[in-house]
Amino acid sequence: MPTARFLGHACVTITDGKNNLIIDPFLTGNSIAAVKQEDIKVDFILLTHGHGDHFGDTIAIAKRNKATVIANYELAMLCAKLGAEIHPMNIGGAHNFDFGRVKITIAHHGGGYGDDASVYTGPPAGLLITIGGKTLYHSGDTALFYDMKLIGEMNQIDIAFLPIGDNFTMGIDDAAKAVEFLNPKKVVPIHYNTFPEINQDPKEFAKKVKLAQVVILKPGESVEF
Ligand code: NI
Ligand code: MN
Q1: Is residue 168 within 8 Å of residue 195, measured between CB atoms?
Q2: Residues 128-153: tens digit of each pLDDT
Q3: Ligand 2 center to residue 37 CA distance, Å?
Q4: What DSSP element (H or E) covers 69?
Q5: What's the CATH code of the domain at 43?
Q6: 184 CA to centre of ligand 1 in angstroms
Q7: So what's the pLDDT on residue 30?
Q8: Which residues pair with 106 in a beta bridge?
Q9: Which of the residues in the chain have pLDDT under 70?
Q10: pLDDT at position 79
Q11: Residue 134 domain boundaries
Q12: Predicted local confidence at residue 37, as pLDDT
């Protein structure tokens, strides 16, 4: 069984015991991060979008590990310019890697790199990752959107990581509706309580979700899926 570990905010590591992946490695400067970027050992870094609270330590981790960054085209090109190995993809596309399959899905959000997010990084994305025969969906930062129903119909999602922080992304009510659309077996709330604007109580989210097992992870905790 593959394992996912929540490291705080939107950062998740995934392992099947052999391959090691990290999503949105925002650790340096993240007040709730469970580990330091120096301690991350991965083969692949997957990015949902270019905002600093997702891009984070991507380049340092990529260079130290000789890891490949998987991201949409414009964001991947930026990573290449900054010295990382890349595998560019784009919305709607999937690719089979040695560890499994990645499909880039839509997200309704912004994009942009740098202190003022003014460097263009293409459209924001979600990630469908199949590893060890199981499927993980990380929505990235997004509003609720009805196509989540299609994603749920076309994929048997074993675990979904969804933002509940509100203000910049879905809040609790919209994330609970997203669970209905996606129909995952397990759901982990993320992107809350990192900064004051996104303070939320994950137990409120758990109360509103009827059709999936809600797994509330503190930064550093893991779940099998
Ligand atoms: Ni964002
Ligand atoms: Mn964010």
Answers
A1: no
A2: 999 999 999 999 999 999 999 999 99
A3: 18
A4: strand 68-72
A5: 3.60.15.10
A6: 23
A7: 96
A8: 125
A9: none
A10: 98
A11: 3-224
A12: 97
Residues counted in the chain: 225
Number of domains the chain contains: 1
What local confidence, expressed as pLDDT, does residue 193 receive?
Answer: 97
Cα of 217 to ligand 2 centre, how many Å?
Answer: 18
Query: Which bound ligand lies closest to the C-alpha atom of 51?
Result: 1
Per the listing, tokens 């994305």 go with: 125
Give the three-state DSSP class for 82. coil
**SS3 call for 222:** strand
Neighbours of ion ligand 1 (CB under 5 A): 51, 141
What's the one-letter identity of residue 178? A
DSSP H or E stretch at residue 77: helix 73-81
Cβ proximity of 182 and 148 under 8 Å: yes
Q: Across the beta sheet with 3-8, what order do the strands follow?
A: 85-89, 68-72, 44-46, 20-23, 11-15, 3-8, 222-224
Q: How far is the CA of 49 from the centre of ligand 1 (A)?
A: 7
Structure tokens, 92: 């709607």
**What's the pLDDT at 185?**
98
Please report the pLDDT score of residue 139 as a whole number: 98
